Amino acid sequence: MDLFRKIILVGEKGVGKSSLKARLDTNLLFDLEQEVEKTSLELEQMDDQDFFLGILELLREESLEVIVDKYYTNNEYFLFMYSVDSLDSFLKILELYNHISKLKKDRNFKMVLVANKTDLCTKNERKVSKKKGECLARKLKCPYYEISVKTGEGVDSSFVDMIHHFIISKTKQKHQDIVEDFKNLFHRQELTDCSFATNSGKKIKAHRLILESRLAPCKVKTIRKLLLTVTHEDASVFLEWVYTGYTHPSKVSLITSMCETISVQFKSLSGVTSVIKNLRNLYKQESSKDFTLKVKKESIKVHKLILVARSELYRGFFLSIDKSTKSVKDHSKNSTETMKSLIRFFYTNRLDGNKTKNFMNEIENSIEYFQLNMKSSLSSQLPTPKKNKMCQIM
């Protein structure tokens, strides 16, 4: 099950691992060679997913190397725990981390650092200060939490936050791959059209407009970090907008100019409606998780996350679109709002919330009308293409 995540709970004996497990879920499922036991926990629905958590806990410290090698290397989520009343358990964290890192080699793993037994602070029994814990977390480049399993303080909120951290970390890694795939695509100057090959073997025509007009994973909230490697400032701004649907208000004019240039290159709305038709065909391939983009004799991997952006519209900042939609005029009063919606959608990939669900049906029912009647209206609103640095990267 793809959504089932196993978090490995590691730490010195007596730091509270078993107590934490018992507080989260007391349902023991099975034993693994009487050394590792596994419990399950169904958390609240997170990110529209029912998230299931499994915990593997080391019971006999003398089996550390055997257990870590046998069970830990196949997992990527780790919760390192120490007790604030035990300096030895704190010092053991770095040893455990180095051992697991050596076993994992180049394979990435995500971790958090948890300090337990904070209820002892009021009794002057604390041996490891919060400052030391935070310092170690910075060294290991991971989040830091303080909890008291005994009183329950911080357990629920911290654990939910940990899960979100693991989800985001996994998403960031996936999008690093996406960025590399699309760098290869954008660098193909000769590309004018291509086809998507789905997992079922079916090929669907895809216009380059799909790849240039902000069709991208709108849920990515950490794209800025990925774009730090882009040296061309305009290219960085444009790619951020392509992937997230967001741009800083001061950069809106640049994005607007770029979109207008792309629009003029396609000259008529028929190209847009054709793209929408092809997108609808792609959406119907729900069983497909990834696609292969065929460019001449070469193949480039395309993640479906990029293709679903238009169905999950990102409500970010875009301040100048009303200037375009308000200037649209048509003799048919009943169609004016739909035309405005189309232009807003084409420029910004954004709709008002109450129009999102019905928009694709409106487009499908009105495609013939748009092709016949909106061609001149839309083209008249587009300015002459401007020369800018962005054109050089397309």
TrEMBL record:
**Which reaction is the catalytic activity of this chain?**
GTP + H2O = GDP + phosphate + H(+)
Gene3D superfamilies named among the record's database cross-references: P-loop containing nucleotide triphosphate hydrolases, Potassium Channel Kv1.1, Chain A
Output the lineage of the source organism: Eukaryota, Metamonada, Anaeramoebidae, Anaeramoeba
Enzyme Commission number: 3.6.5.2
The organism's superkingdom is given as Eukaryota
InterPro entries from the UniProt entry: BTB/POZ_dom, P-loop_NTPase, Ras-related_GTPase, SKP1/BTB/POZ_sf, Small_GTP-bd, Small_GTPase
Q: What Pfam families does UniProt report for this protein, alphabetically?
A: BTB (PF00651), Ras (PF00071)
Which class of enzymes does this protein belong to?
Answer: hydrolase
- This protein is called small monomeric GTPase
Q: In this entry, which stretches build a coiled coil? A: none
